[in-house]
């Protein structure tokens, strides 16, 4: 594409009042770019000014106005390269004269000093914008050769059937895979379920039977019962899925092609999945996709993972004080199975269980936590099962002892109706003992709402065991990916399918695979069916986006995808290992093999590559590096005491919006700072930091999302990876005679806009104490 450049400066929103527009135009003239200004570029007249130039051939535009986060739809011009230069939030609104008095006391000179610093900042942003539009190109979407719109649903319970019915109603073909011989899942085994409509006071029959009828009646839904997924290879829009019977061994099982004898250590202990995967890679000399092609595999565009849960088992030793091991102390799951078959009875002798105690938490050593994998569901299950006791026996008594009683939404009505039942007793308390007695059991509870220890004679004790997700210790999806058959282990997720549910519910770390129901968190049937709809919509979005060649999330609609210059690839594997989404496999030579529709366009591979051979059409090592090099770094030849230059790589997902919001609230940060927005801190290549310091910049900081087990990173581990990379630069800086304190990384949440400028100002103060970069002026 032959480019014709134009720079457009908006003078509205206070920009023209604080900045010298003529000087900005002079900066544009340094590259002989055409430059125009207008008091309202986003208005009809301003847009017509730009469109008239586009009609005359201008196709590379630097629009110096407001933040890229606003008016993005207005300043989008087909067939043009566009960069948004943030003069409003990034310069004018984020810097106040009274917070930058300068080194002189005379007000007039201080005003002049302040305006000069602000002008330098705006000048640099114009230079950076011009440098970027020189280096980027209009992206062209990646188009799959073989494309499928079919959707695979793993799990035939209420969640899976709900997702299938929703997708089918939208016109998509669906396959349900259920490992049991019948559909329905756990709901089909239940006696009753919680109410789903007003007045929310009466239990209802499980909806599973109605769903099964609807599934069987749908011409769009194919059902495979008694079947599991052996492996899923390929990428969204082109998944190749191999099925098998439970327990069956076939060629395409995951882990792949590792002899049975090599799946155990010298002591005969079975190796875990990651250890087997390492052996597999060594056997095949890095060819982690040696069996990618399955000629008999079925094609699918997206996968909905609705595999459900299994009842937790309670350890007899850990919960001995609760009587675990006694025949009349059972879990809520065992109670449900008993109630499904008939009246509630004592397992030990089959006699009626008219006095039942429901224990909601372990209640040991003053700890008020619930059993593992519990939540609001187990609270509601206790109420539901207490209702069974009252239904079965007119003189039955149900006692619910809890540390937390959670009944979200309109289920509060059911809770209140149970409070009014004279046969139901509820109290907050700590169960300290469950002991055998002559006529059954005695339950002792302390710290109750009554303010005293109580003892209850019981026929049966029911413990609120949790709902363990099916993905705990079992990948279920069995992906034929280099990174392994399942998802990356995250401690805080503890087996749940790892969607970043705060920002992106239903999504997992594997693009095109969407989680719904109890594998995301403990859920009621009603919540699971709502989840099913969300996951179905996500799967449909994925299928359609993949077909158009655009990203699904979080950079929805992004047409770029990573381009590799393989001639210089050293096969170091860093890109494949660090990709948070498993978008890269290996080919037969061990070279990275991209799967573009798996990619979420975070750029982590670009930041990881030491050879700098990976880039995107509009975001590359060269484009950002050119922006870094375009910043003017004053030296002793320009000033007796040259201004500092601090460079900030700021994540566009949380940190950049936080700075914009700080600007809207007129919270200032130092005017010697230059901000470059990046897709994710994981995309920051250390060469940018080295270039900045080698050209004389005094410090570099990265500002992004919080990382760790409770991560907030949109791309899962970008901030974490950048933390590791920057920590390894200490020796390099020392060899250059630079302090490693000249580099810093900050964690920020999107709502901490007041904290972001404070972190920047503290870093600038630290750099000022160290003094200027000795490379300044070279």
Automatic annotation (TrEMBL):
Stretch forming the signal peptide: none
Pfam assignment, any one: FlpD
Xref: SUPFAM superfamilies: 4Fe-4S ferredoxins, FAD/NAD(P)-binding domain
Cofactor(s) it depends on: FAD
UniProt keyword terms in alphabetical order: 4Fe-4S, FAD, Flavoprotein, Iron, Iron-sulfur, Metal-binding, Oxidoreductase
GO molecular function annotation: 4 iron, 4 sulfur cluster binding; metal ion binding; oxidoreductase activity
4Fe-4S ferredoxin-type domain span: 560-589, 590-619
InterPro entries, per database record: 4Fe4S_Fe-S-bd (IPR017896), 4Fe4S_Fe_S_CS (IPR017900), FAD/NAD-bd_sf (IPR036188), HdrA-like (IPR039650), MvhD/FlpD (IPR003813)
Highest taxon of the lineage: Bacteria
Family membership noted in the UniProt record: Belongs to the HdrA family.
Protein name: Putative adenylylsulfate reductase-associated electron transfer protein QmoB
Organism: Desulfobotulus alkaliphilus
């Amino acid at each position: 594409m032959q480019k014709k450049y134009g720079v457009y400066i908006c003078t509205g929103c206070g920009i023209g009042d604080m900045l010298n527009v003529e000087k900005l135009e002079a900066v544009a003239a340094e590259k002989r770019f055409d430059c125009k200004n207008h008091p309202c570029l986003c208005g009809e007249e301003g847009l017509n000014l730009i469109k008239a130039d586009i009609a005359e051939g201008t196709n590379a535009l630097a629009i110096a106005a407001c933040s890229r986060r606003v008016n993005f739809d207005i300043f989008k011009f087909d067939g043009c390269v566009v960069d948004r230069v943030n003069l409003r939030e990034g310069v004018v609104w984020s810097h106040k004269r009274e917070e930058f008095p300068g080194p002189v006391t005379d007000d007039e000179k201080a005003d002049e000093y302040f305006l000069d610093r602000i002008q330098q900042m705006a000048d640099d942003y114009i230079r950076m914008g011009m440098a970027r539009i020189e280096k980027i190109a209009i992206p062209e979407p990646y188009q799959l050769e073989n494309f499928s719109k079919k959707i695979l649903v793993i799990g035939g319970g209420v969640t899976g059937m709900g997702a299938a019915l929703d997708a089918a109603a939208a016109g998509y073909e669906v396959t349900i895979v259920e490992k049991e011989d019948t559909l329905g899942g756990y709901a089909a085994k239940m006696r009753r379920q919680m109410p789903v409509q007003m007045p929310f006071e009466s239990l209802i029959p499980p909806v599973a039977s109605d769903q099964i009828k609807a599934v069987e009646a749908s011409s769009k839904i194919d059902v495979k019962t008694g079947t599991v997924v052996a492996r899923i290879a390929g990428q969204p829009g082109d998944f190749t899925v191999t099925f098998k019977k439970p327990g069956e061994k076939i060629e395409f099982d995951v882990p792949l092609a590792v002899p049975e004898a090599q799946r155990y250590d010298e002591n005969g202990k079975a190796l875990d999945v990651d250890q087997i995967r390492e052996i597999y890679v060594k056997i095949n000399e890095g060819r982690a996709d040696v069996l990618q092609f399955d000629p008999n595999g079925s094609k699918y565009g997206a996968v909905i993972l609705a595999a459900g849960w299994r009842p937790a088992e309670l350890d007899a030793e850990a919960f001995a004080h609760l009587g675990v091991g006694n025949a009349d102390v059972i879990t809520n799951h065992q109670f449900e199975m008993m109630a499904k078959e008939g009246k509630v009875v004592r397992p030990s002798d089959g006699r009626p269980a008219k006095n039942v105690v429901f224990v909601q938490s372990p209640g040991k050593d003053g700890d008020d936590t619930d059993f593992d994998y519990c939540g609001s569901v187990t609270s509601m299950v206790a109420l539901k099962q207490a209702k069974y006791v009252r239904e079965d026996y007119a003189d039955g008594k149900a006692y619910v002892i809890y540390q937390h009683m959670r009944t979200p939404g309109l289920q509060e009505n059911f809770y209140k109706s149970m409070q009014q039942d004279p046969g139901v007793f509820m109290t907050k308390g700590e169960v300290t003992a469950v002991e055998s007695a002559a006529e059954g059991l005695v339950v002792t509870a302390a710290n109750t709402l009554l303010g005293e220890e109580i003892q209850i004679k019981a026929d049966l004790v029911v413990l609120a065991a949790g709902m363990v997700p099916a993905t705990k210790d079992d990948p279920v999806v069995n992906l034929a990916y280099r990174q392994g058959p399942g998802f990356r282990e995250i401690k805080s997720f503890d087996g749940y399918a790892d969607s970043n549910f705060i920002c992106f519910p239903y999504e997992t770390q594997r693009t095109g695979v969407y989680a719904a129901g109890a594998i995301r968190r403990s859920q009621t049937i009603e919540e699971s069916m709502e989840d099913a709809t969300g996951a179905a919509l996500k799967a449909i979005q994925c299928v359609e986006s993949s077909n158009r060649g655009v990203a699904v999330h979080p950079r929805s609609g992004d047409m770029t995808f990573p381009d590799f210059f393989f001639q210089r690839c050293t096969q170091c594997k860093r890109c494949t290992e660090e990709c948070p989404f498993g978008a890269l496999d290996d080919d037969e030579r061990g070279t990275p093999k991209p799967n573009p529709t798996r990619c979420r366009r975070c750029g982590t591979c670009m930041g990881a590559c030491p050879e700098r051979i990976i880039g995107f059409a509009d975001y590359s090592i060269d484009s950002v590096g050119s922006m870094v090099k375009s910043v003017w770094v004053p030296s002793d030849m320009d000033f007796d005491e040259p201004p500092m230059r601090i460079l900030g790589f700021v994540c566009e997902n949380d940190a950049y919006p936080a700075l914009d919001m700080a600007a809207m609230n007129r919270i200032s940060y130092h005017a010697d700072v230059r901000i470059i927005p990046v897709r994710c801190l994981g995309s920051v290549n250390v060469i940018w930091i080295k270039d900045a310091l080698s050209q004389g910049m005094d410090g570099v900081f990265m500002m992004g999302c919080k990382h760790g087990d409770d991560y907030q990173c949109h791309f899962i581990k970008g901030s974490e990876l950048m933390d590791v990379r920057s920590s390894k630069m200490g020796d390099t800086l020392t060899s250059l005679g630079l302090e490693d304190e000249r580099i810093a990384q900050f964690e920020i949440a999107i709502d901490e806009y007041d904290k972001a400028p404070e972190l920047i100002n503290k870093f600038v103060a630290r750099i000022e104490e160290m003094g200027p970069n000795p490379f300044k002026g070279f």
